[in-house]
Amino acid sequence: MKRLDEHQLAVWRAFVNAHAAVIERIEKDLSDQRKIPLTTYDVLVALYQSPDKKLRMTELAKHVVLTRSGLTRVVERLEREGFVKRERTEEDRRGAFAVLTREGKKAFLATWPTYADGIKNYFLSVLDEDERAAIERGLSKIYRSLI
To answer: Which residues, in sequence order, are bridge partners of residue 87?
Structure first.
């Protein structure tokens, strides 16, 4: 097993800690302003950005940071809240689409300003232009290597 040196571990810890802290602050802001939580937002934004405002559950799972079972629970809750509806597919009786409703679109759009402020205040404003560019290049490179 190859060991990681202190610098390598420090880079990893900095990424994990910064991500957790930024998300925690944004979640608090959303809660304080009585907006939908980030897990809900992530599902709604994925649907909003998709053609016809719907995705197969398997495709939706690729767009959000949830396990399959976690996604199923979130979609069931969103369906009860009126933000999403599920439709069976014509070609595959076992498959289903998650479809964004008008109420889901309203909730997503109402949440965006608070989320955008959090991104700006807790992440972007702390970094200069060169740091933002380096982070974007590095994280994009990691993502491309894994998809």
So the answer is: 97
